[in-house]
Amino acid sequence: MEDQWRRETKPIDFEGGIFMPYSWTVGRVGSRFFIELRDNGRIMASACRKCKDIWVPPRMRCPVCFSEIDEDAWVEIGPEGTLRHYTVVRYDHKAQPIKPPFAYAIIDLDGATRGFTHLVYGTELEDLKSGTRLKPVFALDPQGNILDIEYFTPVGGQGG
Ligand SMILES: [Zn+2]
């Protein structure tokens, strides 16, 4: 009976959305990272003593060798960096942090060995290329989150 119904009936699709506000702690490491960013405009990274990788945002434990990273092994990096990879966003959606067009990018901040994901904006995106030097634009009213860096933009203006 049920199989016959499945064969003969096209199910009705319902399109909807779920509004689901939530919050969670960013923990000791995340809190220190965001406080440094918010209060001092400093981008901090954690340096693994064993494999020498320098992670941004900082990690409590090295994702490569799983060694615990002591907080006195933190270093200030950047604030400038080099564009490694990017993708341009032209689709406007309320989930986007800023109005398109902009780019999501992996940026090699000076002093880090691992890429940092952030936004590139304020330039002709067609002129971007891997290797473009970037600088952060800090928020005027920092809140203690990743958008205390509003976005990165080419050093020296358009096209880098
Ligand atoms: Zn390591």
Query: If you compute it from the alpha carbons, what radius of gyration comes out, rounded to the nearest whole angstrom?
Result: 21 Å
How many domains make up the 3D coordinates? 1
Largest sheet: 5 strands, antiparallel
Proportion of strand residues:
25-35%
Counted by DSSP, the helix tally is 2
- Which outline best applies? extended
Mean pLDDT: 93
Give a description of the structure.
This protein has 160 residues and is an alpha+beta fold. The chain has one domain (27-154). 13% of the residues lie in helices and 28% in strands. The chain contains 2 helices and 8 strands. It is extended, with a radius of gyration of 21 Å. Bound molecules: zinc ion. Zinc ion binds at residues 48, 50-51, 53, 62, 64-65, 67.
Short description:
The protein is α+β, with helices and mostly antiparallel strands and 160 residues long.
Helices and strands, with pairings:
Elements: H1 2-8, H2 27-40, E1 43-47, E2 54-55, E3 74-77, E4 81-89, E5 102-109, E6 116-120, E7 133-138, E8 149-154
Antiparallel strand pairs: 1-2, 1-3, 4-5, 4-7, 5-6, 7-8
The structure holds zinc ion.
